[in-house]
Amino acid sequence: MPHLGAAQNSVTIALDGDPPVFRVLGSSILPKLTSPNFANIFKVSVDKDGVPPMTGEYAMRNGTLVFAPAYPLEPGVSYRAIFQLAGERGSGVFTPVKPKPVPTTVVESVYPTTSELPENQLKFYVHFSASMSRGDAAKRLHLIEESGVTVKLPFLELDEELWDRDYRRLTVLFDPGRVKRGLLPNTEVGPALVPGKSYSLVIDSEWPDAAGVPLKQGFKKTFHVTAADRTPLDPKTWRLTPPNAGIAAPLLLDVNEPLDAALLLRFIDVVDAKGKLIKGRVTVEREETRWVFTPAEPWTAGAFNLEILTTLEDLAGNKIGQAFDVDNFQRVDQSLRTEIYSLPFKVH
Questions:
Q1: Higher model confidence: residue 124 or residue 27?
Q2: In whole angstroms, what is the distance from residue 176 CA to residue 121 CA?
Q3: Which residue(s) pair with 169 in the sheet?
Q4: For residues 305 and 298, what is the distance between their CA atoms, to the nearest angstrom?
Q5: Containing H/E element for 40?
Q6: Are 293 and 282 in contact (CB under 8 A)?
Q7: Is residue 330's pLDDT more than 90?
Q8: Which residues pair with 303 in a beta bridge?
Q9: Residue 313 in contact with residue 319, Cβ under 8 Å?
């Protein structure tokens, strides 16, 4: 819908189009001109006294004089357009309105991707297609029971939300006090998740991205809760499938339960017999139960090792050789120690 200015002698000035242009409508004289100086008969400027006319391009289109400003018009700034030719006059003041932004950001994925989670599930990773605003997570994330009841305060509320450097991945922690046995919140309030029940993680569409524009649509992940998992990881039960030499085929590591997606991508390296790091690309598949390493160069025959940090975790925070939920707290210097579990393999 064009913006129309005041009309005099049937001449009207309009502002429309994308990008916007000024148009002189209804002139009976303009179409008859052979070599007019349009800048003398049609002037557009900021609506302030003493301001010179704007520069731009003039053109006749289907009997209509069109002025396209050389620079974009500023939303909220008023512009005065004046047309005068012989006995025809027209003028108008226009204030462009900033167009309403179109939402484009979506929730790309939520990890874990499996539809079954243990009672002592520790976290979610929410991945967005673009950078997000900060400070809205607590009011935009909801955990809802299958009955429709919203679980109160299931997640740990932090002063600083746990975003990656691009603000596209948010780590959402369940309140550990409700997860770990023996702690007061677990005893008095109970765990956020109950085995046998189904829940939905619901993300509001009103959550603004970094530009302040709401999400294109909301998101819901529905899952069923199983019994708590308090078994340490045991790499001896994992299956490693080595590739053949001479090709850049993927190395496959199949584990027997879903693992923490972010840690699975970062906590396993491939080294040769001399300890040299093999470069390549890591992905996870099959609901985070398969680790896939594709080398940058073809494999050479020989011995290799997977070097796995023992702080790699499953969905409940259990590590290699250590359960998350233990009866006795370890000393801080012991709990922070990181070791490497080596898993050898050969390429033929």
A1: 124
A2: 10
A3: 127
A4: 16
A5: helix 38-41
A6: yes
A7: no
A8: 346
A9: yes
Enter the pTM of the model.
0.76
- Proportion of the chain in helix, strand, coil states, percent, rounded to 5: 10, 40, 50
Surface-to-core class of residue 61, CB atoms within 10 Å of its CB (0-12 exposed, 13-18 middle, 19+ buried): exposed
| Cis-peptide, bond into residue 112, ω within 30° of zero | yes
Q: 54 with 114: CB under 8 angstroms?
A: no
Burial class of residue 233, CB neighbours in 10 A (0-12, 13-18, 19+): buried
Q: What phi, psi does 86 have (nearest 5°)?
A: 55, -120
Measured distance CA(232)–CA(316) in Å, rounded: 10
Residues 168-193: what's their mean pLDDT? 74
* CB-count burial class (<10 Å; 0-12, 13-18, 19+) for 264: buried
* Cα–Cα dist 320/339, whole Å: 10
Name the one residue in this structure whose structure tokens are 């950078």. 131
Q: Which residue has the tokens 């529905």?
A: 222
- pLDDT tens, residue by residue, 95-138: 998 888 999 999 999 999 999 999 999 999 999 999 999 999 99
Nearest residue to 9 (alpha-carbon basis) of 84, 62, 60: 84
H-run or E-run covering 265: helix 261-266
